[in-house]
Amino acid sequence: MIKIAICDDEQCFYDSIHRYINGYMSHRREECEVNIFSSGEELLGKMEALREYTIIFMDINMQGMSGYDAALEIRKYNKDAFIVFVTAYLDYSTEGYKVGAIRYLIKDALLEDRITECMNAIFDKIGEMDAKMAVEFSEGLKIFLPDDVVYVESRRHYMMFHFCGNCENATYKVRGAFSDYIERLGGRFIRIHRSYLINARHVSVVKPDGVRMSNGDVLPISRSKYNDIKNAIFRLMD
């Protein structure tokens, strides 16, 4: 269940934000718990709860502690929460970047639409984080998306991960076997040979004598299973 905090000192606005969030989450069929705070001081007074919030909607201009100052304090205890600043004024201050705010939302007639767009962006990022893998390679810990992997090569007792060209290092090595990683990599990966596991999204050309990958490497293919492998690749390339 996702925990969401709303911090605003105007009831008409925190009631509206609460209503829009509930409507959005109900439409997504996602469970959530929404807590309302009327000041930054009140929110910061719930120190243990701060660590549990995934999303925090924060009014910038409140009596007492400003939303910016409250957000700076929040980051000391919760570095991962999505902070959304809400304001009645057009404010292009760079302060929000210091706390990694994901959005500035204007309190106007389009607020519901803005919240919907903001929540969509947040759930997209949550999905990306859930999909990421962390592997302790010989070269060090690397966190990456499976789609960044062009193919995995089995070489003696090691797995050689070959990454796409926009990665800073093309190849990483880790001790193990295909069985250790195939489920984590996901359904777009196909075993085309006893030594190669490829990402269908990175296939450029498929021929009976080999598969050309997006990084230019040509990998051998099991001839006896060529048709099955070709059909599987085409099915998974979208």
Topology at a glance:
Layout: E1 2-7, H1 11-28, E2 32-37, H2 40-44, H3 47-50, E3 55-59, H4 67-74, E4 82-87, H5 95-98, E5 103-106, H6 111-131, E6 133-137, E7 140-144, E8 149-155, E9 158-163, E10 171-175, H7 182-185, E11 189-193, E12 196-199, E13 203-207, E14 210-213, E15 218-219, H8 226-236
Parallel strand pairs: 1-2, 1-3, 3-4, 4-5
Antiparallel strand pairs: 6-7, 8-9, 8-12, 9-10, 11-12, 13-14, 14-15
Helix pairs in contact: 1-6
Keywords: Phosphoprotein
Domain HTH LytTR-type: 133-235
InterPro entries: CheY-like_superfamily, LytR-like, LytTR_DNA-bd_dom, Sig_transdc_resp-reg_receiver
Characterization of this structure:
Helices cover 32% and strands 32% of the residues. It is α/β, with parallel strands linked by helices. It has 2 domains: 2-131, 3-Layer(aba) Sandwich (Rossmann fold), CATH 3.40.50.2300; 133-236, Beta Barrel (OB fold (Dihydrolipoamide Acetyltransferase, E2P)), CATH 2.40.50.1020. The protein has a 5-stranded parallel beta sheet, with helices on both faces. Strands 10-9-8-12-11 form a 5-stranded antiparallel beta sheet, covered by helices on one side. Strands 13-14-15 form a 3-stranded antiparallel beta sheet, covered by helices on one side. A hairpin with a 4-residue loop joins strand 14 (210-213) and strand 15 (218-219).
